[in-house]
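A quick aside before the break. I want you to see a complete sequence-to-structure record at least once, exactly as it would be stored in a machine-readable document. Don't worry about memorizing anything.
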Amino acid sequence: MNQAHPDSTGDTSPVGRGTADPLAGMLHRSARGDEAAFAQLYDATAARLHGLVTRVVRDPAQSDEVTQEAYLEIWRTASRFDPRRGSALSWLMTIGHRRAVDRVRSAESSSRRDTTYARADHRVEHDSTEEAALAGLESRRVRAALTSLTTVQREAIELAYFGGYTHTEVASLLDLPVGTAKTRIRDGLIRLRDTMGVAQ
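That is the input. The structure line, written in tokens, reads:
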């Protein structure tokens, strides 16, 4: 009589055996909180999943983040894997791809918001001595407040708001990932706002 042979954990379930699909066995054990099995799963699949994410996101730094987010989701939802619907690898890759697409859409949405804000905030120049004087005073206040920023924040802000460069262009000029450039600009603007708010 044929008997099911347990795996190293003593699991005799079809998924747990993992004879046809070793990754399915690792997922099954991960679903029960087996961190060693999850580590094995990560080692066996991380290169392929990260490669897929990188092809979608096209930003090494963000690819690393998205890959880690994907594995966090895999760890949390491993119990949802159903081997009858496909292989474990395809399930993992689907999660990674979905995470990568979400990140790209989020970045595109953020870029559109930035563009819309810039257009809405753009003021048409008028031939007015009073407005020119006020603008000059405001410019001096901003430049004075810039001294409160770190060097990296200041150069990013100056390129974006005095140089007129986009976030992508700032990232290219400073040899940074776009996400890092956006963070420096955002943090710099927060500090500028706080500094100028104190001065009022």
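Two observations worth writing down. Residues 128-199 form a domain with the Arc Repressor Mutant, subunit A fold (CATH 1.10.10.10). The chain has a mean pLDDT of 75. We'll return to this after the break.
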